[in-house]
Specification:
about 100 residues; mainly alpha
């Protein structure tokens, strides 16, 4: 098992700044030398509502789901996409992704 590096104040500041700017979690992970899982976990620890960092609802909030989007959601989820990754990919909140997965699965 590899030892995990502690998060510094600067790491936290960079993480929240980059996320608020719209930088993807994968890009942030590369910049900070962290895995996507580590980035997601730290964001969840820092704030309860990740969308509040970006200044409002997700870009596709309240947009109707189509059959094509449902199909892509199912495929991405079955290929191992996490709720947070899917939320970023589809421009929806994690709650919207969870809700839709319950409806289509």
């Amino acid at each position: 098992m590899t030892q995990q590096r502690a998060w510094s104040f600067q790491d936290d500041a960079d993480l929240t700044t980059e996320y608020a700017k719209g930088t993807t979690m994968a890009e942030i992970g590369r910049m900070l030398g962290r895995t996507n899982a580590a980035i997601q976990c730290r964001l969840r620890q820092q704030v309860f509502d990740l969308d509040s960092l970006r200044g409002g609802p997700p870009r596709r909030a309240y947009t109707p789901w189509t059959k094509a989007l449902d199909w892509r959601l199912i495929v991405e989820y079955r290929n191992g996409g996490t709720v947070y990754e899917l939320a970023e990919l589809f421009g929806r909140s994690p709650g919207a992704i969870r809700s839709r997965l319950q409806k289509v699965n």
